[in-house]
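re the bet — no i am not wrong, look at it urself. input seq straight from the record:
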Amino acid sequence: MEAITCGFIGLGLIGGSIAKAMKEYLENVKIIAYDVDADTLRRAVEENIADTALTHIGPEFSECDYIFLCAPVQKNDENLNAVKAVMSPDCLLTDVGSVKTEIHKHIHEAGLDSRFIGGHPMAGSERTGFINSKAVLLQNAYYILTPTDAAPKAKLDAYRGLVSRLGAIPLILNCEQHDYVTAATSHLPHVIAASLVNLVHDSDSPEGIMKMIAAGGFKDITRIASSSTVMWQQICLTNTENISRLLDDYINALTKIRGALDTSDAEALYRFFDSARVYRDSFISAPSGPIKKDFDINIDIEDEPGALASVATILALNNISIKNIGIVHNREYEGGVLRIEFYEETSIEKAEKILKGRGYTIHKRK
């Protein structure tokens, strides 16, 4: 593959993960990075991710084949003007935002329609910043491309090929379709998760009994409420119409099920839960959607000093990276006292084999 130069305007979780994937999977890539945080730039250079680290958007970006806008949405206008002044005519400009109509509007106003293809890697984490970025974050994740009508087919084909080489799955949509789909599958669920957490907070006793015994199911459906507050504020302010429209539909659905509850309509309640079960069970079991699948197992361990540390040590000695580990105090819907979460599905198989060989009982969730 011929050498390419890629510029990053912002090097947080997503920008950093794309840059790391490029360094890992591409043979000859140069990365030029701009970020307002000096520690981020220092770390990117130390980890050999950024070949050139800049505290300004300057002429260095003129050699780029691709420039990725990865700063917060509210900075896009300012950064777009700076990039327009230095990017070469052959450079493809893209972004990583989870709302596309707004950036397409700004691109049109800037006269850059023929040089822009929107991008949205459907990957993420509750943790933010370059320090938490990983090349593996993009693996088998959908990476949506939203080309403008003026974007050359050759540029789109090249970008789609680049995404595939990074281990992601390219999917082409127009910007309006993208925003409606992600409003339903990502943005509205975050609103719902946050509202459920706030409901429990406001309904809990002074002793915090609800918080203490929150079941696994509640934690699963509200996990995404731990995501970046500022990011979700900005998403709601930029994809407002779609989220509000779907929220109306959701409120109407809740009103109907409340009616079934109030009238003890057994048949309606059955249909409600059964239709959801059938459709949910038809989903592809892969970490390719906006709400990521957890790679975790539960393990039975003795309640004695050093038991948790022993399991962690066994995995570490076998080069298995742990994303999270903790005691499950409420196991109403699942077995095992210790939950271990991994970064990759392959780690589950390896850990299961090793721990079973040591006599541990493993419980895998569906």
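see?? Residues 286-291, 330-334 have pLDDT under 50 and may be disordered. told u. also The CA atoms of residues 32 and 60 lie 8 Å apart. so pay up
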